[in-house]
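Section 5: illustrative case.
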């Protein structure tokens, strides 16, 4: 079955109680094939070419960019310290468009990231499973398109699951085509112990390992160990290395992926926040619950663990928020802010007890719905409306590649399934999708049709 979320009228701000998740959720089988949607023609390139900063978090659910304190409510965007991510609010949400119907086509990290880099569904780019790096054709991606268009490209953080884990797990220092600066972790990292394959222009690729503590009193400090802060510092180095060439920064921290380890400066900030309890919280879907859902309600111990994880994930994202502020200040100081597009989203959502599910990789809305914010200055997107909330259009991870390519004045070198988001930023109403396909080969193979429907 196709995804058919309810249409809601656009509003200037999110009203209380907006689009609460329901147990009658979005489900589709990977075997279902839709005809690819054509991308809009590339817009005329700006002169100079615009810069793009893509901030991609890991396992962040849709309702964690609203109000955190004084009554958690993901549907309320606050402009003060109540916000879950104040700098995201002040720097990007207030100046851009927040899409409240943002989704990913597969609620797992690797397929979602492959979709972002190609603009294609997994059935077209070859990545339908979470350890999908060996199946990914990396010679024709957003990175190679932009590299050929004269962009400096930099990736800091998570690439594709399985990257570097060949030859018995020994890193090969492989850097995919199209990337000039590369600081990607291989294996499964934590915030305080990880390895990065690292390469900057003119240097050979090396693998460095880091370990330390959660002590991180200063955001993005040099030589810090806390992973989000280290990746922030690497990104700042990339931004400062060349202030004249157009750039594409793909910044992909591990936060708020488990194990949830906040930096010391934010630990305990949200200790009083309770996991949101929507009508489907700890309730089995009815009248025909899939076999994958526990028959019995989740125990108090499990629910307590989920509450702790939820609070710590919010605190981890404050380090991401700090990085947003650092990037914003750097680009403001060197005069590039007015020509830089910011995009903020997550690779998938997460269920903290809805439908008695405590993970991603489900066929419900909680796993596929993500925060989705685009801040494009009017020099790049004429007519762009600041502080706009779009609650009408369904936007997807596959839309990023054709949109960014259009801004760069280039054309994808493959047939994309996504659509150009730029017209929506000015309040336009171009022909648009009213449904999309959810793909999850692993869930289908593991559970069978009766396990997910």
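Designed sequence:
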């Amino acid at each position: 079955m196709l995804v058919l979320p309810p249409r809601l009228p656009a509003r200037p701000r999110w009203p209380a109680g907006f689009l609460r998740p329901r147990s009658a959720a979005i489900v589709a089988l990977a075997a279902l094939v839709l005809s690819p949607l054509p991308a809009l023609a590339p817009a005329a390139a700006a002169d100079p070419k615009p810069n793009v900063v893509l901030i991609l978090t890991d396992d962040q659910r849709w309702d964690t960019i609203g109000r955190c304190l004084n009554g958690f409510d993901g549907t309320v965007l606050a402009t003060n310290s109540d916000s879950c991510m104040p700098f995201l609010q002040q720097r990007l949400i207030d100046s851009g468009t927040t899409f409240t119907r943002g989704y990913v086509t597969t609620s797992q990290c690797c397929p979602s990231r492959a979709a972002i880099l190609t603009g294609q569904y997994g059935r077209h780019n070859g990545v339908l499973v979470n350890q999908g790096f060996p199946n990914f054709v990396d010679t024709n991606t957003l990175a190679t398109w932009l590299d050929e268009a004269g962009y400096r490209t930099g990736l800091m953080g998570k690439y594709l699951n399985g990257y570097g884990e060949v030859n018995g797990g020994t890193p090969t220092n492989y850097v995919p085509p199209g990337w000039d600066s590369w600081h990607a972790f291989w294996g499964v990292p934590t915030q305080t112990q990880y390895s990065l394959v690292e390469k900057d222009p003119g240097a050979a690729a090396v693998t460095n390992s880091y370990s330390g503590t959660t002590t991180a009193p200063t955001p993005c400090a040099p030589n810090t160990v806390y992973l989000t802060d280290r990746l922030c510092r690497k990104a700042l180095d990339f931004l400062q290395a060349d202030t004249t060439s157009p750039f594409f920064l793909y910044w992909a921290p591990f936060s708020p992926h488990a194990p949830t380890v906040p930096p010391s400066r934010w630990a305990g900030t949200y200790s009083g926040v309770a996991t949101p309890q929507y009508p489907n919280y700890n309730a089995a879907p009815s009248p025909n619950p899939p076999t994958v859902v526990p028959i019995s309600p989740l125990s108090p111990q499990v629910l307590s663990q989920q509450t702790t994880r939820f609070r710590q994930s919010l605190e981890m994202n404050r380090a991401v928020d700090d990085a947003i502020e650092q990037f914003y200040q750097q680009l403001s100081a060197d005069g590039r802010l007015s020509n830089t597009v910011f995009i903020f989203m997550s690779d998938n959502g997460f269920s903290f007890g809805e439908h008695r599910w405590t993970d991603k990789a489900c066929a419900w809305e909680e796993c596929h719905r993500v925060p989705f914010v685009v801040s494009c200055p009017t020099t790049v997107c004429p007519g762009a409306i600041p502080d706009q909330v779009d609650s009408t259009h369904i936007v997807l991870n596959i839309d990023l590649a054709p949109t960014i390519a259009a801004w760069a004045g280039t054309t994808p070198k493959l047939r994309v399934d996504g659509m150009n988001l730029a017209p929506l930023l000015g309040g336009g109403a171009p022909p648009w999708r009213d449904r999309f396909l959810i793909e999850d080969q692993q869930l289908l193979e593991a559970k069978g049709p009766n396990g997910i429907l």
